[in-house]
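Me: Here is a favour to ask of a fellow structure person. Could you put it straight underneath, so I can go through it closely?

Assistant:
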Amino acid sequence: MTEDDWRRKFADCGAFWQHDGNPKRPYARLTTNRISDGFFNGGRVAEEDPATFSEGTRTLMYRFQELLRHELDQGQELKFPRIIGAEYGGIALSVIFAAGGRYKSAFAQKQPDDTLAFLRADIKPGERILIVEDTITTGGTVLKLVDAVRRLDLAGCDFIPTVYTLCNRSGKDFVGDFQIVSLISPNFTAWKEGENPFTPDGTEIVPPVRPKTDWTALTRDYE
């Protein structure tokens, strides 16, 4: 499927939306309280349309397997990875991704100091690690996952330098040294209250709404 096909599928289950420029249409207020002309919620895909979530995850897995085949063609040793993600969005993604390729998985849990830690995983020394994430906004979670693995101090563990995601809304092709592979890469903009780049004075023409509770206001027809 094309990126447009994925956008339509995600929109159908209320997980993807992008403003069309109509001044009567509100913008989206995010959980961070910033305002945006676009919205994606990977968790909602998993909740409302598990089949699409699974299909998208397996599509990413197939793209990864193309990378493995390329490595084999280059004479590199085949070493299956452990697929890791962070709670909560990365748990289902890592499990379905791993199941499709018959790999191992693990997930990191959020800690009070805002770090991630592998409290229930049995990652072994020398394992190869692949990171997955349902949405990449700033890339911060990816870097926290890297740090969580390194704090395990396991000899010989190495990272595959790609990260696989359903939606890359970061506007970047890389997070650190990790190339981003995504199903969709929408060009979203987010701003603080009073700094709307699409209005003459930065103020909101109509009050922004929360996508999770006011989906109809975002998506209905406006004359």
Observations:
- The domain at 3-219 is CATH 3.40.50.2020 (Rossmann fold).
- The chain has a mean pLDDT of 94.
- The longest helix spans residues 50-73.
- The first strand starts at residue 16 and ends at 18.
